[in-house]
């Protein structure tokens, strides 16, 4: 007998408990255990009903994704569900905790379902680029109704049991009463003749699912499902539940499932699922490395970034001291945080009490001494080395021994910052992305002397404040901003060569990013990139064409959306970019001055010249050990820069299309673009090596 499922006969009821930590994934051992124990209960004349439940805090997290790569998977989950549904004795699912994916499909195949009101269930397979493949798309519409099932399956969002009356036969208010009320329900089923009710026998009312329901749903989904493969197949599977008999619907579901599994989008989304989890596993510390308690946090700077960072800690219930040298700036920062919380309350995301509770955790000060007892301090001041060093010198004097001193720098050398203190082992970079209270990514930047204890504490702290942390090394821009440099540079150069900002932006938007480089520049403020260029003139002096149009725009005060004009024009109160002929003319003048011939540029060239150098920079970063693995770069780009998850991140995208294609294109542009090409399109040695060996970035190990 499989130990992943244990059976207890309680009177005339066989109770089957799944117990496969950590999440009762429906691995082979669980599937075997369910079939063996059900068959044994059916053979026992003293058993009148079978209950399926869990010994863990959740019912089941669904499929064991590690099995997707193959092996002996018999019995498959649909086989298990057939055994459950066709059992001649009633099978009752008692959901003592969440049920997701295959876990919910197990419950749907049972004859009755019992749970508690606040419990959450869902079919999140769409997030892995697939659809529920064990009857979920056929059974859920029969129980929850077509519209509700469609929404749950296509969005992948979980739903509270209290909102799924058609799915559950008994919903208990108090989870503590689930077992007693659940077993009473089972005895009632037995007393009423132990009736078996197959979900597959439920007739769908076709009038509740007219063609326009699906048409409207598709229309409403257009923007958010852009580029994804699975959502449309999810819709088609639910349509099959309405149009076809159950058995044929299952066949159609299976066909659509296999289509999804074979798609590059599913490969990318599953890669990303594992990449996000792998980012937490680093070699810089081990289980025995101690961590420090973070009970109070200091934040220097109450501007947009500092305020956003503070909100993360307040949201997690951690007290924060915000420091500004001027009371006016401090008051303004705290008022903005309150306004953000009040807006969330208006949208129903927070109660007014929660707003007050969070604000109560925030206190302000204009004196460094107020930071004497904090466990972690994060500076979020102007991005200038002299300013950062001054701040860290002051922190070194007032902060207690063992306090972690962190910089939110996005580009500067954390080693140099650490050297301005007497405790470089306590200094680390914590690069939050703006808006810091919304963006999930946190680049944790380890300096040469940062202790393993500080690294481990920072990685674990990120989880507490609901961030996805990726550990990186020190170089200009770390991983994210270092790679965005060639991306922006090539967009600017392509405009000199004859492409328009709207053509470039459309190519990148169609590729899957939320906006193109020119729109992004305008939204962020063109002055930000200008200040970075000013600090690095010696590194770009060899290229007189480097972002010359952007420099001209900034000098004219055209810094983007906030000034009403940048690469585009904007109407007051409207974020929609309007093409500006003046910018195209400016690019033409600069091209003439620099001797650059303008021409028609294909969309393919635009895509390759913007995305491939970004990938090439990623290869250099891997080679230098700034990122530990290519999947870490993918996590940074999906969460920090909006790279489409259905492409898996830039390195997974390169692996998918083949590194030889990227390498050959880099060589082609290096040779075609003369001196400019020889400066900027030299393939990274690692890209060349892997391409020649027919390998992938995923194969590269430090």
Determine the structural class based on helices, strands and strand pairing: alpha/beta
CATH class of the largest domain: Alpha Beta
Main-sheet strand order equals: 12-11-10-13-14-15-16-17
The coarse overall form would be globular
Layout of SSEs?
Layout: E1 5-10, E2 13-18, H1 28-43, E3 49-54, H2 77-85, E4 91-94, E5 99-100, H3 102-109, E6 112-116, E7 120-122, H4 136-144, H5 146-155, E8 159-160, E9 170-172, H6 178-191, H7 211-221, H8 230-243, H9 246-261, H10 264-278, E10 297-300, H11 304-315, E11 320-323, H12 327-346, H13 352-360, E12 362-365, E13 376-379, H14 385-398, E14 404-407, H15 414-418, E15 427-432, E16 441-445, H16 452-464, E17 468-472, H17 480-497, H18 501-511, H19 517-524, H20 526-534, H21 537-540, H22 548-555, H23 581-594, H24 603-624, H25 630-641, H26 650-657, H27 659-672, H28 674-680, H29 685-693
Parallel strand pairs: 2-3, 3-4, 4-6, 5-7, 6-9, 10-11, 10-13, 11-12, 13-14, 14-15, 16-17
Antiparallel strand pairs: 1-2, 7-8, 15-16
Helix pairs in contact: 1-2, 2-3, 3-4, 4-5, 4-8, 5-8, 8-9, 10-25, 11-12, 17-24, 18-24, 24-27, 27-28, 27-29
């Amino acid at each position: 007998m499989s130990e992943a499922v244990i059976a207890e006969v309680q009177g005339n009821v066989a109770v089957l408990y799944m117990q496969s930590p950590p999440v009762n994934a429906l691995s082979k051992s669980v599937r075997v255990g369910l079939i063996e124990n059900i068959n044994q209960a059916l053979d026992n004349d003293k058993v009148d009903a079978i209950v399926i439940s869990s010994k863990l805090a959740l019912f089941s997290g669904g499929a064991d994704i590690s099995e997707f790569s193959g092996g002996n998977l018999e019995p498959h989950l649909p086989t298990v569900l057939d055994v459950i549904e066709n059992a001649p004795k009633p099978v009752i699912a008692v959901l003592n905790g969440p049920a997701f994916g295959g876990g919910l499909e197990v419950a749907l195949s049972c004859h009755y379902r019992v749970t508690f009101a606040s419990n959450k269930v869902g079919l999140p397979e769409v997030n892995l680029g697939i659809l529920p493949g064990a009857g979920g798309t056929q059974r859920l519409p029969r129980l929850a109704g077509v519209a509700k099932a469609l929404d749950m399956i296509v969005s992948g969002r979980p739903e509270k049991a209290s909102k799924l009356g058609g799915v559950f036969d008994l919903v208990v208010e108090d989870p503590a009463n689930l077992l007693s009320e659940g077993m009473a329900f089972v005895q009632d089923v037995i007393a009423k003749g132990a009736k078996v009710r197959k979900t597959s026998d439920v007739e769908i009312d076709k009038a509740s699912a007219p063609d326009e329901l699906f048409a409207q749903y598709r229309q409403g989904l257009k923007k958010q499902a852009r580029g994804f493969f699975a959502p449309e197949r999810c819709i088609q599977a639910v349509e099959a539940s309405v149009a076809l008999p159950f058995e044929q619907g299952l066949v159609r579901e299976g066909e659509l499932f296999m289509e999804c599994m074979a798609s590059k989008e599913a490969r990318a989304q599953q890669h990303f699922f594992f990449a996000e989890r792998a980012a937490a596993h680093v070699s810089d510390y081990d289980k025995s490395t101690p961590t420090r308690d973070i009970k109070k946090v200091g934040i220097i700077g109450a501007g947009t970034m500092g305020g956003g960072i503070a909100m993360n800690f307040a949201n997690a219930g951690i007290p924060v001291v915000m420091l500004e040298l001027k009371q006016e700036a401090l008051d303004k920062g705290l008022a903005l945080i309150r306004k953000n919380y009040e807006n969330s309350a208006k949208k129903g995301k927070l109660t007014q009490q929660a707003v007050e509770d969070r604000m109560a955790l925030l206190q302000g000060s204009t004196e460094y001494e107020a930071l004497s007892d904090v466990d972690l301090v994060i500076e979020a001041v102007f991005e200038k080395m002299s300013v950062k060093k001054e701040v860290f010198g002051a922190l070194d004097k007032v902060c207690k021994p063992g306090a972690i001193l962190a910089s939110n720098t996005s580009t500067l050398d954390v080693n140099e910052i650490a050297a301005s203190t007497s405790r470089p082992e306590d200094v680390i970079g914590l690069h939050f992305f703006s808006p810091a209270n919304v963006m999930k990514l946190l680049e944790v930047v380890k300096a040469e002397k940062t202790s393993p204890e500080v690294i481990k504490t920072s990685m674990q702290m990120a989880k507490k404040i609901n961030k996805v942390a990726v550990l990186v090394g020190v170089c200009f821009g770390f991983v994210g901003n270092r790679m965005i440099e060639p991306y922006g540079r090539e967009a600017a150069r392509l405009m000199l060569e004859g492409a328009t900002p709207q053509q470039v932006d459309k190519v990148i938007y169609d590729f899957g990013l939320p906006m193109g480089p020119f729109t992004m520049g305008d939204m962020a403020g063109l002055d930000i990139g200008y200040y970075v260029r000013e600090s690095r003139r010696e590194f770009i002096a060899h290229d007189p064409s480097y972002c010359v149009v952007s420099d001209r725009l900034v000098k004219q005060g055209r810094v983007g959306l906030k000034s009403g004009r940048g690469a585009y024009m904007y109407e007051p109160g409207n974020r929609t970019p309007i093409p500006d002929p003046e910018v195209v003319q400016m690019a033409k003048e600069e091209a003439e001055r620099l001797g650059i011939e303008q021409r028609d540029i294909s969309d393919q060239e635009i895509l390759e010249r913007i995305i491939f150098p970004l990938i090439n920079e990623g290869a250099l970063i891997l080679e230098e050990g700034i990122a530990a693995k290519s999947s870490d770069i993918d996590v940074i780009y999906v969460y920090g820069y909006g790279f489409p998850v259905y492409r898996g991140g830039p390195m997974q995208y390169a692996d998918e299309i083949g590194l030889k294609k990227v390498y050959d294109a880099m060589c082609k542009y290096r040779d075609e673009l003369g001196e400019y090409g020889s400066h900027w399109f030299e393939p990274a040695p690692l890209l060349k090596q892997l391409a020649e060996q027919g390998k992938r970035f995923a194969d590269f190990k430090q």
